[in-house]
Amino acid sequence: MDTAGNLIKTVRVRKIKSYVMLSIATVTAIYGVLWLLWILLDVFFNGFKSLSFSLFINDPAPPGVEGGGLRHAFVGHFIITSLATIMGIPIGIGAGIYFAEYGRHSTFVKFLRNITDVMVSFPSIVIGTLVYAVMVKPVGHFMGISGSVALALLMIPVVAITTDEILKLVPNSLREAGYALGARRWQVIKDISLSAARRGILTGVILGIARITGETAPLLFTAFNNNYLTLDPTQPMASLTVTIFQYAMGPYEVWHGQAWASALILTFGTLMFFILAKFVIRRK
User: Is 103 helix (H, G, I), strand (E, B) or coil?
Assistant: First the structure.
């Protein structure tokens, strides 16, 4: 009887602890979601009032004058982030493959992996100042391509770590089966490891793109900004995030409205990209 009573008491205590922890987790989750919804709704209602088609197709109007658009910022932001993605994704995936497939038991690779972990938490402004010292200062002027390099440096660790962790989840028995059939290491990696881990790697790529889409600090030190449309990445180039920052800090109401509208497009555009990419990954 004592044993049964102790068992019942233990079960009750565990249930109470479980309910308490579940309640705490639920409250904190609701707390975080409420703040997220407040931010999204605030951006939506303030940005929707100033949203117009001219925002995408017109150049900026003179300061304080109604009208105008941010075509230069949309185009510049697309160019900078596209170049950063082209540079960051192959290097990040390649680094992840090297960590997981070639240097899993190497002390040197573990050291590189730790450095990569540290780089994920690096303040973006530090990366911006580094690229400024290496690329901008020697040339003597700001460049859009230097902004792309800074964003690529922010993307690479995210993609590399995700690729590494996902490839480590692929069972070694699959690799051994490939070797048993006479496949070379690169063939095993390409046809077995990467094929099995493609969903996780694509998720890492999505996270990397999302990581750089809203960055402002590194672009202030590298691409700076431009009040005119330019397609030359070797010249100062406008970006949406820097333009939002400058317009939000400006004294004109029309600037504030365009900043809200741009923030709305950037926020919900990134959200739609997430949803679309997740849908494509799930379908595949």
Answer: coil
